[in-house]
């Protein structure tokens, strides 16, 4: 559990932070890929046109905003979309985003 990065609680979600996270096309792509997959995805398995260090930054922004949850399976950092939590905090936001793809 010590390797699991911190995640905000739903009560800590901030709409401004979420919207700032989603303004970047790479981060929107990560969110839509997670939504389309319907399952958790390893960091290295996303189709994003950035370096590993830049990808790490994008994942951190999404995690800190509450959009994704990250955890380890062996040496792989897995990502899951926090759809239910986002729906609780901001109803319809992710639906609007994923419909736009």
From TrEMBL:
Residues 7-101 form the HTH arsR-type domain. CDD domains: HTH_ARSR (cd00090). This is ArsR/SmtB family transcription factor. It comes from Nonomuraea helvata. The lineage of its organism: Bacteria, Bacillati, Actinomycetota, Actinomycetes, Streptosporangiales.
């Amino acid at each position: 559990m010590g390797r699991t990065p911190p995640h905000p609680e739903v009560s800590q979600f901030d709409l401004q932070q979420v919207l700032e996270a989603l303004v970047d096309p790479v981060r929107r792509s990560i969110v839509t890929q997670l939504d389309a997959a319907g399952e958790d995805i390893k960091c290295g398995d996303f189709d994003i046109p950035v370096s590993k260090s830049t990808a790490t930054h994008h994942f951190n922004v999404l995690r800190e905003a509450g959009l994704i949850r990250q955890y380890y399976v062996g040496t792989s950092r897995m990502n899951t979309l926090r759809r239910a939590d986002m729906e609780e905090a901001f109803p319809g936001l992710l639906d609007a985003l994923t419909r736009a793809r």
